[in-house]
Amino acid sequence: MTDEADTATPAQQAGSRNSDGTFARGHSGNPAGTPKGRVSFRAIARRLLAEAIEEGGKTAAEAVVEGWLADALAGDKDARKLLIEQIDGKAVAAIEMSGPDGVPLEVDLRRLGADDLATLERILGPR
Q1: pTM for the whole thing?
Q2: Domain of 72?
Q3: Beta bridge partner(s), residue 52
Q4: 57-75, pLDDT tens digit by residue?
């Protein structure tokens, strides 16, 4: 006869997980959490980029952008792309969903199972 405590994981033994392995309500998977006072990489980078550097009193961010601009003007395609993405954001890729020869896709709802139809009704509302 096996004891349930022998087969339970340490987290389950501590009572933080349900029988299905999910965390119990109000219990974290990381009880220690992020240490107090820890600063994110993003926060550090933003702070350093905002600080003035020796050259002419410009910020580090200004110096970085000037470098990208110089590289872009010198023909560096990656620098051009980076500058454009930083200004306008990344281009959104259009995806066309069609059948052979561009014909619209057809869905035969009669071939869907009861579970699929129930899911569609939950999403789209009743027929």
Answers
A1: 0.44
A2: 59-97
A3: 59
A4: 888 889 899 999 999 999 9
